[in-house]
Design a protein that fits this description.
Distance between the termini: 48 Å
Bound molecules: FE2/S2 (inorganic) cluster
Strand content: 15-25%
Structural class: alpha+beta
Shape: globular
Helix content: 25-40%
Number of strands: 5
Radius of gyration: 15 Å
Length: about 150
């Protein structure tokens, strides 16, 4: 049965009517019209759908709507709105090609940078968020510049 789930999206209160088991990704892209979070594998492997939950990166395709009730969800739209320094670094390093993977990478890396994680820890955490276009080395260079 559908139920109203209330949570905070990029700092603003929102409510979504949906099945408790519905992936958060579908709520973000559908009811909430936040299309920056991408659907890739749909199974928690590729990281294209990465968002933050109370500041911790999670895959929105494997996070049920019921799990975010009362909590804080952050998406790439929030990272862009706060003008995170990683955005400018990615542009400086020309680290975007097709751009499909970039919202997940940006969201995860920005969260880990904000937590004060070391460059090697962030790079290891991005193992699953691989840029298949070939820009991955430039992405890692941009992250290293900001995290150092
Ligand atoms: Fe691949 Fe969610 S879409 S991890």
């Amino acid at each position: 049965m559908k139920q109203a789930v209330e949570f905070y999206l990029n700092g603003k209160p929102v409510a979504v009517d949906g099945l408790p088991s519905m992936p958060l990704l579908f709520a973000l892209r559908g009811a909430l019209d936040h299309k920056g979070t991408r659907l890739g594998c749909g199974e928690g492997h590729c990281g294209a759908c990465t968002v933050t939950l109370d500041g911790v990166p999670v895959t929105a395709c494997t996070t049920p709507l019921s799990a975010v009730a009362g909590r804080a969800v952050g998406t790439v739209e929030g990272v862009l709105a706060q003008d995170h320094p990683l955005v400018a670094a990615l542009i400086r390093h020309q680290a975007g090609q097709c751009g499909y993977c970039l919202p997940g990478i940006l969201t995860k890396a920005a969260a880990l940078i904000d937590q004060g994680r070391r460059v090697d820890e962030i790079q290891a955490a991005l193992d699953e968020n691989l840029c298949r276009c070939g820009a991955h080395a430039r992405i890692l260079a941009a992250i290293a510049e900001v995290a150092s």
